[in-house]
């Protein structure tokens, strides 16, 4: 790899890999179960119509069965929530099916829907998956969020670890990645480990459950948390000095950095000479020491780092000289770093809709122009009002085209 290329990696993909690895610790095939349910109804309108009767009978709100796809980052949580919401109707449907006793998909679904263990795992996943998905949603934003990456990775790990590790154990370590989370003495007991209120209520209302079933459930939950945490520490760039240094972009985290950590970024991304590096160090120290109230307004609820740093770049000293000239130049470079593949994935989705089967002969230039309009025009198509010059140019092009055909 070229030394001038900095590989951040896609944190959304990394979070999804962590979830997939943790799901594999569950003793029941949650993924396969969701796929079986979807494809049972997908190709049969008759089955869907029959299912509506069971929704009415069980007083279940009529909602569509969602397709689960491992490559979709947010798929699992939505599918688990929808299946739990439809559980009474689906359970009644598969139990009443004429082929429920025959080996195959229908029999598998019936067995899973009548399993208390499977319901417990679904309720647990509904509780725990939003933690990862909230992180994922943040870094799918179109805004540059690279300045929040290190802080949010640490917060995610701390939040996940706090579900099953004692507070004393976590706070005793200055580096959260060094916590011995697999030691049973450092973990909560079964009454305090986080599994969600829905699971707790179910266990309380069903005290006749076999003790072995309950014991196996909590053992699986511990392994789920341990695997998730272990994979996060392995996959996420917690120790990357560049990612940590880029945290200077977030004014709420600037006090945790030293000027040297900020200056080290210039060696990576800017070709500064000794004098410029010295000036950058002075500006970084001044920025870190300046109280937040003396910097341009920053609203944590609408965390636009681009807007904040544009304001920083416009600050001037009484002499008229820019106050943070070199620091602002550094910020423009690092703000351009992508933090996930979300924008690229969205572009591919747009391309698929533009170059559909009826339009598979579009020229590359035309596709490029349509993509440019789609990406760079944030308004809805019915609200778009072209400039008079554009309309005039389009009419001229149309006239020339007609003329060439005559």
From TrEMBL:
Q: Which InterPro entries match?
A: RNaseH-like_sf (IPR012337)
Q: What is this protein called?
A: HAT C-terminal dimerisation domain-containing protein
The protein's organism comes out as Mytilus edulis (Blue mussel)
């Amino acid at each position: 790899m070229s030394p001038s290329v900095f590989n951040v990696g896609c944190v959304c993909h990394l979070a999804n890999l962590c979830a997939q690895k943790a799901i594999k610790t569950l003793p029941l095939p949650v993924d396969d179960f969701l796929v079986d349910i979807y494809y049972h109804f997908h190709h049969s309108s008759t089955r869907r119509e029959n299912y509506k009767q069971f929704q009415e009978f069980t007083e279940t709100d009529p909602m569509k069965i969602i397709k689960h796809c491992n490559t979709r980052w947010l798929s699992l949580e939505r599918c688990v929530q929808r299946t739990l919401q439809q559980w009474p109707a689906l359970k009644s449907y598969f139990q009443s099916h004429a082929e429920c006793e025959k080996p195959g998909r229908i029999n598998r679904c019936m067995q899973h829907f009548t399993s208390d263990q499977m319901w417990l795992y679904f309720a647990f996943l509904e509780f725990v998956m939003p933690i990862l998905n909230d992180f994922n949603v943040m870094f799918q934003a179109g805004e540059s969020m690279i300045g929040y990456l290190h802080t949010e990775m640490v917060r995610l790990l701390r939040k996940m670890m706090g579900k099953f590790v004692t507070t004393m154990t976590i706070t005793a370590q200055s580096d959260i990645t060094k916590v011995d989370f697999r030691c049973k003495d450092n973990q909560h007991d079964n009454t305090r480990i986080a599994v969600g209120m829905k699971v707790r209520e179910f266990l309380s209302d069903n005290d006749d459950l076999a003790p072995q079933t309950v014991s196996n459930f909590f053992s699986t939950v511990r392994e789920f948390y341990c695997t998730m945490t272990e994979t996060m520490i392995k996959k996420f760039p917690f120790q990357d000095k560049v990612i940590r240094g880029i945290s200077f972009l977030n004014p709420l985290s600037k006090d945790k950095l030293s000027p040297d950590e900020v200056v080290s970024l210039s060696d990576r991304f800017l070709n500064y000479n000794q004098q410029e590096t010295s000036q950058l160090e002075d500006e970084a120290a001044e920025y870190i020491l300046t109280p937040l109230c003396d910097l341009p307004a920053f609203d944590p609820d609408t965390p636009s780092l681009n807007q904040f740093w544009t304001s920083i770049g416009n600050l001037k000293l009484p002499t008229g000289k820019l106050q943070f000239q070199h620091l602002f130049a550094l910020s423009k470079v690092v703000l351009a770093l992508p933090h996930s593949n979300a924008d690229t994935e969205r572009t591919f989705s747009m391309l698929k809709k533009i170059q559909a089967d009826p339009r598979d002969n579009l020229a590359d230039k035309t596709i490029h122009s349509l993509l440019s309009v789609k990406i760079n025009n944030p308004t809805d198509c019915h609200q778009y009002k072209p400039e008079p010059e554009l309309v005039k140019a389009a009419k001229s092009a149309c006239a020339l085209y007609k003329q060439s055909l005559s």
